[in-house]
Amino acid sequence: MTRFSNLIHMPDGTLVESNVRHIEQSDMMKCPHCIMVADHYRDDGTCKCNDPKEVIMKEWGYKWKKGQWR
């Protein structure tokens, strides 16, 4: 299990964790690119490499070919 979260630096100097997500490592290994970004994974553990609307993949330089980001 991999834990993803955001750390917020509070005015008093403490760090507060928010937006915590746990993703199974086996689900990340099923991703053709093994992307290590929590938002890349749906709640059911599947990745968004087969979602043509996942614009971040295009921003990262992937190309849409044969029904998948490559």
Structure in words:
- The protein is α+β, with helices and mostly antiparallel strands.
- It contains 2 helices and 4 strands, in the order ββααββ.
- The chain has a two-stranded antiparallel ribbon with strand order 1-2. The protein has a two-stranded antiparallel sheet with strand order 3-4.
- Strand 1 and strand 2 (15-23) form a beta hairpin.
- It is elongated.
Order of helices and strands: EEHHEE
Globular, elongated, flat, extended or rod-shaped: what is the shape?
elongated
The portion of residues assigned to helices is: 10-25%
Rg (CA only): 15 Å
Spatial gap, N to C terminus: 26 Å
Give a count of the beta strands, DSSP E runs of length 2 or more: 4
Largest sheet geometry = 2 strands, antiparallel
SS-derived structural category? alpha+beta
What is the beta-strand fraction? 25-35%
Indicate the mean pLDDT.
96
Write a short abstract of this structure.
The chain is an alpha+beta fold. The protein is 16% helix and 30% strand.
Which secondary structure elements does this structure contain, and how are they paired or packed?
Blueprint: E1 2-9, E2 15-23, H1 25-30, H2 55-59, E3 64-65, E4 68-69
Antiparallel strand pairs: 1-2, 3-4
